Every structure is written in C-alpha cells, then in structure tokens.
Amino acid sequence: MESNTHGSDHFPIILQRDHCSHMESVPGAKLDLKNGNWTQFKERIHDQVLNIAVNADLGKNIQTIIQEAGREYLYRAPKKVKRPSPPRWDAECTQSIDRRRQSIRNFKKSERFLKVKKKASFIAFCSSLNRESNISDVWRKIKRFRGASVPYPETPLDMAWFHPLLRNLAPDSVRLNLRLEETIPLENFLCRNFTMNELECVTDNSKHSAPGPDNIHYQMIRNLPWNAKGVILLCYNSRMNGESIPLPWKESSIIPVLKPNKPPNLCASYWPICLCFIPAYMPLIFLFTKNFRIPY
After folding, report:
1. Which of 1, 2, 198, 243 makes an SS bond possible with 238, Cβ 3.0 to 4.6 Å?
2. Taking the domains of the chain in order of start, what are their residue ranges?
3. E strands, 223-276, where?
4. Considering the entire predicted model, what is its pTM?
5. What residues form DSSP beta bridges with 274?
C-alpha cells in the first residue's frame, strides 16, 4: 500500500501476481524446526545483536540476523544426487540387461506379495475396531493405509477468475463509513508500551503456522535470546509511538488455493491464503490481547 494518495480518495494498493508456467524441482535445503540446533541459534543471535549499531535500522537488522542464523542452524543439507556414468556397451552391459529383467520379475512378485499383505493388514485393522476406538486415530491410520498424496492442481490457462479475485481482495473503490472515536487518553492501558511479558506470552501461545515472505517462524522468535527479544520489543514500541512502519511489513503474499471438487475457472472456487510478515502481525495480537483482556 502506497502512502501517497495521488489525488484519490483512498490509498492505492499495489498487487503483483507471481506465476510461472513451468518450474523444475531442485533439491535444496529443508527447514528442520524439530531437530534444529537451537542452542547455537540463540548464541549466534545473542552475539550479533550486541554488535548492532545504535543508529542502525533495528527492524531490518534483527530480521537479517534471524534469517542468517536460521539458514545456518535450522536447515538440513540437501541430499547429493549421483549422476550415472555414460553407457559403454559390452558383454557386461548384456549381463546387466539380463539382471535387470530378473529384477523386474522380482519386483512384480514383490508387488503382488505387498498387495496381499496390505489387504490382510487392513482386514486385521478393521477387526480391531470397536466403540471405544478413537476417531482421530482411526482416520489417521486409514490415511496411512492409503499412502496417497493429492497432487496440487495446475493453474488453468484461462485466468478470467483471477481479476474478480483481486477486486474482492482490493476493491477499486470503497465507501468510507468511519465513525470517529474520542481520543484515548495517554494514561489508558492501551497506550502503554508493550512489555517483555506480553511478547513472551504471544510467542509461547502462538500455534505453528506457515511463515510469510521473511520465512521467520514463531518458533524462531520464541527461541531468541533476551537481547534479541529486547530489540524486537524496541522496534514495536517505536512504531506504535509514531515512527514509520517498514515497507516490508506492509506487504503480504496471497496464495489462491483451489477448493476440492470445484471448477478451476471460477473465482468462488478458491480460498485466498494470506501470508504476512510475523513481525508485522504480532503487534495486532498484542492489541487484541490488551483490548479484550483474554489470553491469546
């Protein structure tokens, strides 16, 4: 969202569609939050926060520090792909073909054997069910028996549904129906600075969710050292006291997800999933907790 109205009665919202017709799968590093080295993660951030300049952009610096520490201590190395050597046909190649044919026969035999075992195992599972069986466990085991993943549908060539979706997210014009409230006095509890207890309450009770464009998870914020949390808290309070909000905090990625068994050429067939920056979203949780006086 731009800060200049350009003579209009509302602030312009810039939308960008990221789409490519073909994307190759490249093996890369994978984020491992369960087995990550959180001790080194904390120590690395603690040391780097101490070296942040006083007049530096705290929001940008702490974001870069968290991302670098996450890449170093929370990612698993990609598996190395071994490329086959060029073929050189000789007697050994012929023997290899014979072994391959035998392996194919063994493979088909194994497939038949596994199919029989799967059927017998499913029959035994059904026989073990009773009234006291947990429904969640039953469905979880059924999904494991199926072992099938639903492929993500390809984006249709007809993108006529995309423009109505954008108009629903950011209409061309909005009728203003603002009701002016009285100015909140400075001694009101809503005007007080956020505290470290509130920050830790939000991070400790936040559920695991998909990260935004910064790829920073709640679990990363939860495992930050005390000085890094202090920098984040200082950034929040300075923004709430009048400093300009960083431009990345105003951006978000919207992913249209096709609903099951819905036609892909209709706007109503998609769920818009919004991914925003975690640092930009957390102050809203602060205010929600203060305003309604309920634990988040």
Report:
1. 243
2. 156-170+185-292
3. 252-258, 270-276
4. 0.47
5. 254
